[in-house]
């Protein structure tokens, strides 16, 4: 009995490593979004299909609400526990961060003790070096509420504890406030107090892909009006009756990240609003606070510039800049990928394609509303 079952046992065990070899990926979505929304679900599924690897969208709390109001220290802890509890990730995994989801992804990478190793990190429009505006209060069409934010005490304990994006807002002209009050980004970037472990973990990535959005469609007047009313509805109540100084950004850039270069770790210089420094000229890079320079000098960072507004990624760009880093290099050629590559792709310049892409990526409600009024 025992003898006859032995060979079978053996075969299963020798096959297992082959079957489970492909490295899965996890997706962390952006603010005001959730894993159950069609956009993120579709996005995760597409990446899975094209790369022939398993993808998981990891939810934090209840999704939409908690992405706005749960501080990142907590969001990161939850994500850390989830990642550790998933047996599928034990051999290592890749991270795909969408916008604010990059803060969670990097939090897990740097802060999560005892977590499985992260191999590749694909960042889609992440506010890595900070953000100078509340996301979607300005969907690129209205305002950067700079002066207002300072007045409204973005670094107060109250806002830090109850408005997630405040945890990565960096007002270059209020660095004292930022250093004292901002509870997440300074730690994530090893900005003031340094922790060698964070740097070591960040530097251990095999590949870091930083996707920045430049240029896209211009917004029409109707969209601007709608965005403003959405802004008043969603954002004003957060700030009570505070005066908010509106300033419109260019409609054809990443309309959420200010400056868009933060996706590449570029940012405003200390104490001023211009010029925007490329990553390589920031102290984070030159002094190698978290290992970005180490990674880059080892040829492990891809700075990718794609056409489109915030998260307006096309199928083509997903295949070019994401799928290759999710595909297992050791795996045989992927028929799914080849097949979908040979199909005609929607042109990134046609407005139809843009609309489709926006939904695909799980555009937050605000932006979906905008799309319905072309
Ligand atoms: C992914 O592949 C599965 C199985 O072939 C298919 O049912 C599903 O519709 C695909 N998903 C997307 C988003 O294309
Ligand atoms: C640095 O981070 C590690 C990992 O989270 C932690 O164990 C250690 O205590 C930290 N060191 C300092 C000096 O804070
Ligand atoms: C990114 O691409 C846009 C549009 O093609 C171009 O205008 C811009 O100079 C590029 N930026 C960088 C930093 O390469």
Automatic annotation (TrEMBL):
Residues 1-22 form the signal peptide. One of its GO terms (molecular function) is thiolester hydrolase activity. It comes from the Eukaryota. Residues 332-353 are annotated as: Disordered. InterPro entries: AB_hydrolase_fold. Residues 337-352 have a biased composition (Polar residues). This is Palmitoyl-protein thioesterase 1-like. Keywords: Hydrolase, Signal.
């Amino acid at each position: 009995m025992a003898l006859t079952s032995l060979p079978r046992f053996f075969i299963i065990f020798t096959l297992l490593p082959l079957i489970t070899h492909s490295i899965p990926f996890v997706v962390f979505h952006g603010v005001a979004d959730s894993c159950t929304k069609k956009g993120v679900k579709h996005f995760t599924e597409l990446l899975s299909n094209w790369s022939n690897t398993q993808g998981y969208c990891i939810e934090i709390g209840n999704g939409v609400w908690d992405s706005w109001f749960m501080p990142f220290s907590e969001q990161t802890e939850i994500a850390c526990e989830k990642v550790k509890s998933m047996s599928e990730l034990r051999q290592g995994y890749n991270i795909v961060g969408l916008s604010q989801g990059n803060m969670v992804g990097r939090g897990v990478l740097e802060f999560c003790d005892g977590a499985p190793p992260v191999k590749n990190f694909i960042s889609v429009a992440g506010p890595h070096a900070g953000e100078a505006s509340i996301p979607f209060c300005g969907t690129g069409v209205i305002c950067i509420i700079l002066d207002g934010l300072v007045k409204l005490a973005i670094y107060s304990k109250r806002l830090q504890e109850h408005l997630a994006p405040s945890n990565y807002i960096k007002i270059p002209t209020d660095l004292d406030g930022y250093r004292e009050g901002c509870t997440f980004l300074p730690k994530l970037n090893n900005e003031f107090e340094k922790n060698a472990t964070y740097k070591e973990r960040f530097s251990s990535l095999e590949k870091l892909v930083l996707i920045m959005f430049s240029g896209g469609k211009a917004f029409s007047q109707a969209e601007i009006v709608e965005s403003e009313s959405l802004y008043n509805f969603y954002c004003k109540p957060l700030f009570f009756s505070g005066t908010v100084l509106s300033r419109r950004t260019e409609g054809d850039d990443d309309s959420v990240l200010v400056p868009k270069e933060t996706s590449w770790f570029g940012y405003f210089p200390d104490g001023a609003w211009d010029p925007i420094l490329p990553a390589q000229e920031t102290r984070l890079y030159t002094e190698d606070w978290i290992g970005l320079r180490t990674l880059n000098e080892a040829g492990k960072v891809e700075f990718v510039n794609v056409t489109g507004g915030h998260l307006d990624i096309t199928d083509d760009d997903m295949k070019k800049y994401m799928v290759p880093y999710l595909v297992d290099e050791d795996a045989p050629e992927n028929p799914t990928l080849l097949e979908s590559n040979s199909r005609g792709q929607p042109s990134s310049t046609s407005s139809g394609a843009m609309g489709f892409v926006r939904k695909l990526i799980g555009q937050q409600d605000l932006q979906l509303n905008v799309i319905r009024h072309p």
